[in-house]
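Good morning,

Attaching, inline, the backbone tokens for the sequence recovery test we're adding to the shared suite. The designed sequence is right after.
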């Protein structure tokens, strides 16, 4: 496995591989790799000639009161896991290279960003599309891999690729879960023993909401209230949101049909957990 820190070296490597007609699968991450990341790598390894993964904790995604400095990092372990997974290139750019000065051109997400996590994290998805636009230009992948646990991010990336004509196929894979249903996340390490036992009820609550939405004569307001009560009665977490939207448009609709997302975010003492279910509703 080759480790690249330099932006120019990354570009040169990609140009050489493209000349040979090799396809590139790309898995962008912020590190502290877990099974969800590794399954994305497995899929990219299987579907492409070369697998490039990046590790970059992007400061533009963190608000003034968020956990940029505390975000978990373990470079040695990440390198070991990436090597074991057959990564060809691990791209480890430095912040001062990615953002050597303040940006002259600022990207702003106008749609799909003012709901769910974006509602309480102003500017977060602006940071996501900014770093991804840079990474897509540097890596020039044929396919880019993301997990549906961050379904709003997937929807925003879908818009980025479509709006700016990136010649990239977006591959969104199912959420990877623990045996008890909890979505795997780098932030799970912050849960206390009691909170870890309670956290799987978020996923169970979403499944309850899915079942209710598939019944006749039930309103989204009623389902959201019932899902919220399910979470608060089974956990000590504080609900940030429970919402039901069209997907990937992330719009509120009167009649639910087609692809729908039911999603939740819950604050525990030292971690904010998100989860969702995406499914079809037949009219």
């Amino acid at each position: 496995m080759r480790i690249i820190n330099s932006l120019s070296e990354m570009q040169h490597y990609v140009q050489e591989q493209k000349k040979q007609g090799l396809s590139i699968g790309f898995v962008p991450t912020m590190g502290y790799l877990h099974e969800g990341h590794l399954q994305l790598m497995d899929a990219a390894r299987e579907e492409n000639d070369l697998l490039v993964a990046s590790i970059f904790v992007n400061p533009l995604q963190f608000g003034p009161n968020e956990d940029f400095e505390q975000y978990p990092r373990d470079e040695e372990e990440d390198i070991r896991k990436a090597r074991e997974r057959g990564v060809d290139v691990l791209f480890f750019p430095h912040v001062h290279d990615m953002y050597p000065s303040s940006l002259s051109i600022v990207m702003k997400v106008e749609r799909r960003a003012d709901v769910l996590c974006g509602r309480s994290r102003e500017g977060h998805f602006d940071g996501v599309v900014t770093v991804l636009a840079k990474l897509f230009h540097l890596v020039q992948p044929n396919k880019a891999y993301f997990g549906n646990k961050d379904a709003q991010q997937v929807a925003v990336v879908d818009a980025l690729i479509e709006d700016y004509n990136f010649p990239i196929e977006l591959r969104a894979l199912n959420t990877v879960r623990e045996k008890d249903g909890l979505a795997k996340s780098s932030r799970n390490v912050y849960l206390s023993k009691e909170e870890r036992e309670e956290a799987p009820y978020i996923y169970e609550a979403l499944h309850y909401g899915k079942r209710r939405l598939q019944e006749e004569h039930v309103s989204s307001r009623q389902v959201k209230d019932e899902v919220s009560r399910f979470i608060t009665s089974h956990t000590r977490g504080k609900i940030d949101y429970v919402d039901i939207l069209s997907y990937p448009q992330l719009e509120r609709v009167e009649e639910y049909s087609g692809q729908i997302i039911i999603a939740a975010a819950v604050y525990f003492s030292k971690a904010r957990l998100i989860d969702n279910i995406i499914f079809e509703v037949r009219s």
